[in-house]
């Protein structure tokens, strides 16, 4: 009687083998998630594209232009030949560097706050530069304070800043100051070192500011008061802009924390109600992902356009502003003074 063929015994894997196999599967799944996430990010939130070069020509300022300097030379009529056309200035942008104009707007109209943000997505660094609201520009045939151009909407301020500093403005974000009040309350207040005692009343602007100097937790209404009070400083708007930059930095650091993850929905709702912008949602997502992990203590540089108060305007220091513009690293080349449109009445 023949015996049935012996079945081949199954080989049992060792505990170490099973563990390595499980680890391999986990790593494969994680790698797949990373690949899919990366692909989705590039499809739904790709890196924004901007013009690689900026051409600055005579007349590039559109309706923002400086007045002619002095009367014509009386002897110039002796030569009827036309003047040669100036050569346009072409500057090359650095890859991965983007700009955004931040405007803080009160209910009464006009912009209380004008800041230029520059984000280098390659180096993971950012700059936030205050533009004093009383900075003088020449527009529509007369000298004006730059904040007055908001009467023509955000684009009026955007054109002025482009002309003034010789830089591209990729996006603008207009924020009603009520947004700050709402966000500060939603995250449970912001710890901040108030630089001076603040006591100011202005019923017309609905301002009632009474905050003592010192490190303390600020809630919505007091936070907005600290952001808006310009009469609390001997240097008026210049002192206020320094406080605004410091407070925005503190707000950002204390908002982007794990404890506020559950408040994302309400924060988005606040953004939709009080913020208007020409930045596409996909670009917002891209910049948000690029900002993850940034240490704002070391990666964020803040400053203000230097100058002096010569009533009724803040008149810029040409050399200091040119140095600051070059320090922003927007262009590959050194920016010449001719690219800026700084005026002095």
Q: Quickly count the domains.
A: 1
Strand content: 15-25%
Computed over alpha carbons, the radius of gyration is 28 Å
Sheet bearing the most strands, described?
Answer: 6 strands, mixed
State the secondary-structure class: alpha+beta
The topology string of helices and strands comes to: HEEEEEEEHEHEEEEHHHEHHEEEH
What is the mean pLDDT? 82
Number of strands: 16
Shape: globular
Q: Given this structure, which CATH class is correct?
A: Alpha Beta
Could you say what the CATH architecture is?
3-Layer(aba) Sandwich
Can you offer a commentary on this structure?
With 345 residues, this protein is α+β, with helices and mostly antiparallel strands. It has a single domain, classed as 3-Layer(aba) Sandwich (Aminopeptidase). The protein has 9 helices and 16 strands. It has a 6-stranded mixed β-sheet with strand order 13-8-3-4-5-14, sandwiched between helices. A two-stranded antiparallel sheet has the order 1-2. Strands 6-7 form a two-stranded antiparallel sheet. β6 and β7 form a beta hairpin.
Question: Topology of this structure?
Answer:
Elements: H1 15-44, E1 53-56, E2 89-92, E3 97-105, E4 111-120, E5 125-130, E6 136-139, E7 142-145, H2 154-165, E8 171-176, H3 178-186, E9 190-194, E10 198-202, E11 207-211, E12 214-218, H4 220-228, H5 237-255, H6 264-274, E13 275-277, H7 281-291, H8 296-299, E14 300-304, E15 307-310, E16 313-316, H9 318-327
Parallel strand pairs: 3-8, 5-14
Antiparallel strand pairs: 1-2, 3-4, 4-5, 6-7, 8-13, 9-12, 10-11, 15-16
Helix pairs in contact: 3-4, 3-6
């Amino acid at each position: 009687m023949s015996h049935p063929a012996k079945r081949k015994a199954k080989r049992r894997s060792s505990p170490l083998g099973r563990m390595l196999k499980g680890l391999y599967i986990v790593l494969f799944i994680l790698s797949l998630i990373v690949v899919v996430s990366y692909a989705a990010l590039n499809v739904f939130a790709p890196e924004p594209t901007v013009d690689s070069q900026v051409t600055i020509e005579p007349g590039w300022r559109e309706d923002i232009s400086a007045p002619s300097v002095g009367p014509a030379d009386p002897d110039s009529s002796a030569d009827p030949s036309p003047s040669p056309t100036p050569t346009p200035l072409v500057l090359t942008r650095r890859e991965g560097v983007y700009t955004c104009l931040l405007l803080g707007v009160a209910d009464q109209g006009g912009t209380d706050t004008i800041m230029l943000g520059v984000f280098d997505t390659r180096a993971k660094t950012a700059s936030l530069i205050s533009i004093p609201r009383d900075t003088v520009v020449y527009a529509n045939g007369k000298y004006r304070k730059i904040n007055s151009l908001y009467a023509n909407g955000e684009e009026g301020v955007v054109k002025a800043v482009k002309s003034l500093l010789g830089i591209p403005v990729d996006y603008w974000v207009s924020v009603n100051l009520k947004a700050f009040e709402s966000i500060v309350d939603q995250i449970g207040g912001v710890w901040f070192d108030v630089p001076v005692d603040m006591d100011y009343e202005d019923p017309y602007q609905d301002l009632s500011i009474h905050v003592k100097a010192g490190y303390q937790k600020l809630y919505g209404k007091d936070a907005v008061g600290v952001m808006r009070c310009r009469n609390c400083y001997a240097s008026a708007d210049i002192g206020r802009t320094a406080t605004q930059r410091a407070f925005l930095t503190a707000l950002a650091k204390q908002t982007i924390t794990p404890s506020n993850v559950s408040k994302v929905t309400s924060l988005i709702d606040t953004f939709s109600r009080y913020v208007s912008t020409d930045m596409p949602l996909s670009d917002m997502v891209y910049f948000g992902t690029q900002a993850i992990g940034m240490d704002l203590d070391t990666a964020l540089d803040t400053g203000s356009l230097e100058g002096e108060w010569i009533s009724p305007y803040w008149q810029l220091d040409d050399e200091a502003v040119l140095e600051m513009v070059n320090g922003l690293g927007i262009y590959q080349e050194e920016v010449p003074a001719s690219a800026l449109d700084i005026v002095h009445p």
